[in-house]
């Protein structure tokens, strides 16, 4: 038989349960009402979620910016971030604290929720809540710490909360929907970026990583002067690379291609990189090798690059002591007192500029421990395959100085020489800069360009109107004058060189003659001495003979 107390407790629990059911129904309706009518503020929504959670437990999914041991931001995080940018549009989706980044449209900003902000979303009748938060950097010295950003920087997360009863809908359909939508937003908002591994402070980057600005270089192949056939070949090569994902997979090669651009300063190597990036619509990662401390840092930088990008190392010969062998060579060249300055007139300016560049970097270089093998690994080691769809470009003024291992095909697949301005390039520049296709001065320019070498940079500078009174006539006249001056300078230098050579020759001849003369005199003296000796010997012999005759007698 049940005791009174147990009966009472049974009645009690029945009442409590009924009450709870009523309260729950009221609360739930209230919560739904609150959400539907969106009457309450962010705080009331948070409260309603917490109340709902006590009665119908909610589940959470956390998306970390760097998950597990990964070295790159997770795609899911970036997609969620982009999706939430959309969710915070308009009035900010009820979010009070927003982060703003520049938009494609210069008048607008892309808004996203700030840390510790919460935004509610709704998917086919299911209510979900997103929370953004950051955790302090982990300084545990573990492998993650060694590898980079993931542990050394603040760790950012999104947490998605939803009711247990919506579990299948959220996990099976809502999250894939978020990723798809996020990707679409990313494509829509995409601004190409120019990354650098140099921090704003100018020293070692704080976390040895990339910082970026929006890539806005206006140069395209349409405004790049070079041999049209060569230009077409490069553009076709780039197009073929972009569409060759399956080919690279089929032949088992990493989806990357190396370009070596070489030529004197001012022939358009950097300009070509900008044109390539604009043609392919890729980001650019400009690596300043002298700011990379070790091979490990170089590898990490590489891993943090994204696909659809051009990775650039400018002036590779100045940035790196490629081998011990090269170092010795350089030293020997210095000892011998020779070098680029011996290269004659046409390379004079180029050599001086390149030497200045090299000198600038000498100080920094001594602090960098990046080696040739580090760079080779970076280009085609195991890690180079991660990410895919990347172009690596090296530029140099002195291709002959580079270690053959660095530029062999497979590493630098395409070698492109950027050269002095020919008449075709000049005509192209005249059209671009002055909108002139034919002019009476073209013949003069053509004749002069056959005799002197001028870089496209110098030609372009002369063709740029400097003031309101300047037009095609004045610019072309300025170019002809500059070419004539260059020609005179070249002729003066040639005459000087010829005079020096003639002087040297005359000196050598005089020396030879002097030597001959000295040799001849010595021979004569020797001859005379010889003759004298013979005479003396003969007279002695005669004396002896006479003496013998006397004795016989
Ligand atoms: N082939 C070209 N077509 C059009 N403009 C050019 C060309 N080459 C050079 N220029 C112009 O000259 C300037 C300098 O060129 P750029 O910086 O590309 O030379 P570079 O070869 O990279 O020189 P360096 O070896 O010193 O880095 C650019 O501003 C560009 O506008
Ligand atoms: Mg350059």
Automatic annotation (TrEMBL):
<dbReference type="InterPro" id="IPR003959">
    <property type="entry name" value="ATPase_AAA_core"/>
</dbReference>
<keyword id="KW-0812">Transmembrane</keyword>
<feature type="compositionally biased region" description="Basic and acidic residues">
    <location>
        <begin position="510"/>
        <end position="535"/>
    </location>
</feature>
<feature type="domain" description="AAA+ ATPase">
    <location>
        <begin position="255"/>
        <end position="422"/>
    </location>
</feature>
<feature type="compositionally biased region" description="Acidic residues">
    <location>
        <begin position="537"/>
        <end position="553"/>
    </location>
</feature>
<dbReference type="InterPro" id="IPR050747">
    <property type="entry name" value="Mitochondrial_chaperone_BCS1"/>
</dbReference>
<dbReference type="GO" id="GO:0006950">
    <property type="term" value="P:response to stress"/>
</dbReference>
<dbReference type="InterPro" id="IPR003960">
    <property type="entry name" value="ATPase_AAA_CS"/>
</dbReference>
<dbReference type="Pfam" id="PF25568">
    <property type="entry name" value="AAA_lid_At3g28540"/>
</dbReference>
<feature type="compositionally biased region" description="Basic and acidic residues">
    <location>
        <begin position="339"/>
        <end position="349"/>
    </location>
</feature>
<dbReference type="InterPro" id="IPR003593">
    <property type="entry name" value="AAA+_ATPase"/>
</dbReference>
<dbReference type="InterPro" id="IPR058017">
    <property type="entry name" value="At3g28540-like_C"/>
</dbReference>
<dbReference type="InterPro" id="IPR027417">
    <property type="entry name" value="P-loop_NTPase"/>
</dbReference>
<feature type="region of interest" description="Disordered">
    <location>
        <begin position="327"/>
        <end position="352"/>
    </location>
</feature>
<feature type="region of interest" description="Disordered">
    <location>
        <begin position="492"/>
        <end position="553"/>
    </location>
</feature>
<keyword id="KW-0460">Magnesium</keyword>
<keyword id="KW-0472">Membrane</keyword>
<dbReference type="GO" id="GO:0005524">
    <property type="term" value="F:ATP binding"/>
</dbReference>
<keyword id="KW-1133">Transmembrane helix</keyword>
<protein>
    <recommendedName>
        <fullName>AAA+ ATPase domain-containing protein</fullName>
    </recommendedName>
</protein>
<dbReference type="Pfam" id="PF00004">
    <property type="entry name" value="AAA"/>
</dbReference>
<dbReference type="InterPro" id="IPR025753">
    <property type="entry name" value="AAA_N_dom"/>
</dbReference>
<feature type="transmembrane region" description="Helical">
    <location>
        <begin position="7"/>
        <end position="28"/>
    </location>
</feature>
<keyword id="KW-0067">ATP-binding</keyword>
<keyword id="KW-0547">Nucleotide-binding</keyword>
<feature type="compositionally biased region" description="Basic and acidic residues">
    <location>
        <begin position="492"/>
        <end position="501"/>
    </location>
</feature>
<dbReference type="Pfam" id="PF14363">
    <property type="entry name" value="AAA_assoc"/>
</dbReference>
<comment type="similarity">
    <text>Belongs to the AAA ATPase family. BCS1 subfamily.</text>
</comment>
């Amino acid at each position: 038989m049940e005791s009174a107390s147990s009966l009472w407790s049974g009645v009690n629990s029945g009442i409590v349960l009924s009450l709870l059911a009523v309260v729950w129904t009221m609360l739930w309706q209230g919560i739904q009402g609150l959400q539907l009518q969106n009457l309450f503020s962010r705080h009331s929504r948070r409260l309603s979620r917490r109340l709902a959670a006590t009665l119908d437990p909610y589940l959470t999914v956390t998306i970390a910016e760097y998950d597990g041991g990964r070295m790159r931001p997770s795609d899911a995080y970036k997609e969620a971030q982009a999706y939430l940018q959309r969710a915070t549009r308009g009035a900010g989706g009820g979010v009070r604290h927003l982060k703003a980044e520049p938009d494609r449209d210069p008048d607008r900003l892309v808004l996203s929720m700030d840390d510790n902000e919460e935004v509610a979303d709704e998917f086919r009748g299911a209510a979900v809540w997103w929370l953004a938060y950051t955790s302090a950097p982990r300084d545990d010295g573990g492998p993650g710490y060694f590898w980079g950003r993931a542990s050394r920087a603040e760790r950012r997360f999104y947490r998605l909360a939803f009711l247990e009863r919506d579990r299948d809908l959220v996990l099976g359909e809502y999250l894939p929907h978020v990723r798809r939508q996020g990707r679409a937003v990313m494509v829509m908002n995409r601004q190409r970026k120019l990354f650098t591994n140099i921090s704003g402070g100018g020293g070692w980057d704080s976390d040895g990583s990339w910082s970026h600005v929006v890539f806005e270089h206006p140069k395209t192949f349409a405004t790049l002067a070079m041999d049209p056939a060569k230009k077409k070949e490069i553009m076709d090569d780039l197009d073929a690379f972009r569409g060759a994902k399956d080919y690279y997979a089929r032949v088992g090669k990493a989806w990357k291609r190396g370009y070596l651009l070489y030529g004197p300063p001012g022939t358009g190597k950097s300009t070509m990189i900008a044109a390539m990036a604009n043609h392919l619509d890729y980001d650019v990662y400009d690596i300043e090798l002298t700011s990379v401390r070790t091979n490990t840092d170089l590898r990490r930088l590489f891993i943090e690059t994204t696909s659809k990008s051009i990775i650039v190392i400018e002036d590779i010969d100045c940035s790196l002591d490629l081998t011990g062998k090269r170092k010795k060579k350089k030293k020997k060249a210095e000892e011998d007192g020779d070098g680029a300055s011996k290269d004659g007139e046409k390379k004079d300016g180029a050599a001086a500029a390149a030497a200045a560049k090299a000198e600038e970097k000498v100080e920094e270089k001594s602090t960098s421990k990046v080696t040739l093998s580090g760079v080779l690994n970076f280009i085609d080691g195991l890690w180079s395959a991660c990410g895919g769809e990347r172009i690596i470009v090296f530029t140099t003024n002195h291709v002959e100085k580079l270690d053959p291992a660095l530029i062999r095909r497979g590493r630098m697949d395409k070698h492109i020489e950027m050269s002095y301005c020919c008449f075709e390039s000049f005509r192209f520049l005249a059209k671009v800069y002055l909108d002139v296709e034919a002019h009476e001065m073209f013949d003069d320019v053509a004749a002069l360009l056959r005799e002197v070498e001028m870089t496209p940079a110098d030609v372009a500078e002369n063709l740029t109107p400097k003031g309101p009174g300047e037009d095609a006539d004045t610019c072309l006249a300025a170019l002809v004058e500059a070419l004539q001056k260059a020609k005179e300078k070249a002729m003066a230098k040639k005459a000087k060189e010829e005079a020096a050579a003639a002087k040297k020759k005359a000196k050598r001849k005089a020396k030879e003659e002097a030597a001959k003369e000295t040799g001849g005199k010595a021979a004569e003296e020797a001859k005379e001495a010889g003759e004298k000796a013979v005479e003396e010997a003969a007279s002695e012999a005669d004396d002896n003979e006479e003496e013998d005759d006397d004795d016989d007698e």
